[in-house]
Amino acid sequence: MTIHAEPSHDTLQPLAFCPLARAGNRRSFLLLIPSRRLDPPVDETRDHILGASDAPITLVEYGSYACPHCRAASETIASLRDRLGDRMRYVFRHRPLANNDLARRAAEMAECATREQFWKVHVELMARSPTLTEDDLAAVKAELYLDAPEVSERARARVDEDERTARANGVTLTPTFFINGRRYDGPWDEATLSDAMLGTLGHRVRATALDFASWGPSAGVLLLVATVLALVLSNSPVGDAFAEFWHRELGFVVDAWHFGMSLRHWVNDGLLTIFFLVVGLEIKREFTVGHLANSRSAALPIAAAVGGMIVPALMYLLLSPAGPLARGWGVPMATDTAFAVALIVMMGRRVPLELRVFLTAAAIVDDIGAILVVAVFYAADLHIGYLAAAAGTLVVLAFLNRSHVYLVLPYILIGVVLWACIHAGGLHATLAGVLLALFIPTRPPPNLHTLMMQADAILLEEAKHGGEVLRHGPSLPALNALDFIHDRLESPADRLLRRAGARSSYFVLPIFALANAGVVLSGDVLAGRGPLVLAIMAGLVLGKPLGLIVASMVAVRTGIADKPEAYSWRQLAGAGALAGIGFTMSLFIAGQAFPSAGDFAVAKIAILAASLCAGTIGTIILWNAKSPTDA
Question: Over 70: is that where the pLDDT of 34 sits?
Answer without folding.
Answer: no
